[in-house]
Amino acid sequence: MIKNFNVTILANEQVAEKIFRMTLDAPELSANASAGQFVQVKISDAFTLRRPLGIASTADCRVKIFYRVVGRGTQVLSTRHAGEKLDVLGALGNGFTPRDGKILLVGGGMGLAPLLCAAETFSADVLLGGRNSSEVEFWCAEFRPNVEEIFVTTDDGSVGKYGFVTDALPDVLAKKNYSAVLTCGPEIMMRGVAKLAAEKNLPCEVSFEKRMACGLGACLSCSIDTVDGRKKVCKDGPVFDARKVFVQGR
Questions:
Q1: 11 Cβ contact list (under 8 Å, min separation 6)
Q2: Is 54:65 a contact under the CB 8 Å cutoff?
Q3: Termini Cα distance of the chain
């Protein structure tokens, strides 16, 4: 059920360059949210539009979200302090499909945030990528308590395998009998992950990151093309079957 919550900020910490982790005291929201869903955060009365942020954890009656400071809104959000109240709308969208077996999570950049919640939910390994060691080290620390293995790639080769997650994915998929692949991050990355999963005949779900105005499916600002016609990422997603959005040859 979608509700408006006035929750207490427990922590708002910088964990890497321009990246923050916010922890919210939100028992009802955490109890009703599932991996892959998101919230719409009201920055302040000075901003008309809310900001969509993926739910990264629902453990211990708390909700964690991660965000990168990229504009005036997220800059203001980064100045909010523990003890302050935050207006949050959620949980929104459709999450990842419940599955048995070992899942492989594949992500890059801020797309790793919703995969953290999936790691709490499923038996999983994770393949994560970033530009350099400072971009991936804190993500490794976040995933470590909830996954069996962590595979890392960096653009500069400073840690893990040199290159992109799609370069490492064939070798990772060969290590175990994964039951599915869940991915979130840049669209070009997800398209490559979906292609490699399809070659292995593995189910693959992709979680889209789109600019959203309302988050409720009314404004159509986040519409995408699928084999079933135009769909709204906020209401019909953000999680989609990869075969529905990444058609071979398109």
A1: 21, 22, 23, 82
A2: yes
A3: 36
pLDDT score, position 249: 42
Confidence (pLDDT) at 214: 52
Q: Using the structure block, give the residue that is written with the tokens 């699928």.
A: 226
**Read out DSSP for 189-202?**
HHHHHHHHHHHTT-
Point out the residues of the chain with pLDDT beneath 70: 1-2, 210-222, 224, 228, 234, 237, 247-250
Domain 103-245 belongs to what topology? Answer: Rossmann fold (3.40.50)
Q: Please, which residues have CB within 8 angstroms of residue 48's CB and are 6 or more apart in sequence? A: none
Residue 145 DSSP SS3? helix
Please give the Cα distance from 247 to 37 (Å, whole number).
24
| Residue limits of CATH 3.40.50.80 in the chain | 103-245
Burial class (CB in 10 A: 0-12, 13-18, 19+), 223: middle
Query: What pLDDT is stored for residue 171 in this prediction?
Result: 94
Measured distance CA(142)–CA(96) in Å, rounded: 19
Residues of the chain with CATH 2.40.30.10: 3-92
pLDDT at 50: 84
CATH superfamily of domain region 3-92: Translation factors (2.40.30.10)
